[in-house]
Design a protein that fits this description.
By secondary structure, the chain is α+β, with helices and mostly antiparallel strands. The protein has a single domain (2-244), classed as Bira Bifunctional Protein, Domain 2 (BirA Bifunctional Protein, domain 2), CATH 3.30.930.10. Helices cover 33% and strands 19% of the residues. It has eight helices and ten strands. The strands form three sheets. It has a four-stranded antiparallel sheet with strand order 1-5-10-9, sandwiched between helices. A three-stranded mixed sheet has the order 3-2-4, with no helix packed on it. The protein has a three-stranded antiparallel sheet with strand order 6-7-8, with helices on one face. Strand 7 and strand 8 (139-140) form a beta hairpin.
C-alpha cells in the first residue's frame, strides 16, 4: 500500500509517467477499506493464521490477499482513460482487465452493468460486486477500489487466482456464510477450469491493458524517490496502529 501511494505522489509530481503495477503479497494479508471498522476483524484468528493486516487508502470491504494478482493503475485525472468520475473510469479500466481475462480464455465475463443488491452490506469485498466490477458467470472475479489525491487517480484491485474464496470468513468477527461467498465469487482457476500461474495472468493483464486501452507499456522499476517515499509511508502510516486501527 505504501508503494501504491508513493507512485501516486511521483505521478502527481510529474516525476514518472502513468503507471500500471502488478504485484503479490508475502505473507498473506487482510486489507480493510479506508472507512471500514476494525471491529470487523477477528484479530486473534488473523494472527493465529500468520497473516498481516493493513488498511487501504481506498474504500471498500475486507479482502484476504492470498494466491492472487494485485494490480494498481496511477494516472493524472487529465489522462483520458481515467477522466471523469469514478464510475466512468471504472468502466474504461475494466475494459483492460476484461481483455486480459478474455485472452486467457475466461468465458461469461461482464463489467458493463450496475450492480444489484447494494443493500447487502457485509464485511467481505467479494461477496457483492460494485458498479462495473468484473464478474464471470455472474460471480465476482475482480474487486477494485479507487482514490483521488493531488489531481491524480489511484485504482487498485485483487484478482484471485486459485484457492477457496471463502478463506476470509473465519477471520472476520461476523463469520460470513462461506457457502454464500463461494456462490457469489470465483477465481481465475475456477472460471477457466484449469490451473494458472501468476506470471501467466500478469502477462495477460498487461496485454489486455495495452490492447483495449491503446497503450504502449514499458517495463520499469521504482525510482529512488519512490522507494524513499514508500519506506517513510510504511513506517509512518501503513505499519502503524494509528492508521490501521483508526476506525
Amino acid at each position: 500500500m505504501a508503494m501504491d501511494e508513493a507512485i501516486l505522489r511521483a505521478v502527481a509530481d510529474g516525476r514518472v509517467p502513468p503507471t500500471l503495477r502488478l504485484y503479490a503479497w508475502e505473507p498473506p494479508c487482510l486489507s480493510l477499506g479506508r472507512g471500514q471498522s476494525m471491529a470487523d476483524v477477528d484479530i486473534e484468528r488473523l494472527e493465529g493464521a500468520g497473516f498481516d493486516l493493513v488498511r487501504r487508502p481506498t474504500g471498500g470491504k475486507s479482502i484476504l490477499h492470498v494466491d492472487e494478482l494485485t494490480y494498481s493503475v496511477v494516472a493524472p485525472e487529465t489522462e483520458p482513460r481515467v477522466a471523469g468520475g469514478i464510475v466512468e473510469s471504472y468502466r474504461r479500466l475494466s475494459a483492460g482487465l476484461m481483455a486480459g481475462l478474455e485472452g486467457l480464455g475466461v468465458a461469461g465475463l461482464a463489467a458493463d452493468q450496475r450492480a444489484e443488491n447494494h443493500r447487502l452490506d457485509g464485511p467481505v469485498c467479494f461477496e457483492v460486486p460494485s458498479d462495473y466490477e468484473v464478474t464471470a458467470g455472474g460471480r465476482k472475479l475482480i474487486g477494485s477500489a479507487q482514490m483521488r489525491a493531488s489531481s491524480t487517480v489511484l485504482q487498485h484491485g485483487a484478482v484471485p487466482l486459485t484457492g477457496d474464496v471463502a478463506r476470509i470468513c473465519p477471520l472476520l468477527a461476523a463469520r460470513p456464510d462461506p457457502v454464500r461467498v463461494r456462490a457469489r465469487a470465483t477465481t481465475v482457476e475456477e472460471a477457466l477450469g484449469r490451473p494458472v500461474t501468476w506470471d501467466e495472468v500478469a502477462g495477460a493483464v498487461v496485454a489486455g491493458f495495452a490492447g483495449a486501452l491503446n497503450l504502449h507499456l514499458e517495463p520499469g522499476a521504482l525510482t529512488d524517490a519512490e522507494r524513499v517515499w514508500a519506506g517513510k509511508l510504511r513506517a509512518d502510516k501503513y505499519a502503524t496502529g494509528e492508521w490501521n486501527g483508526r476506525v
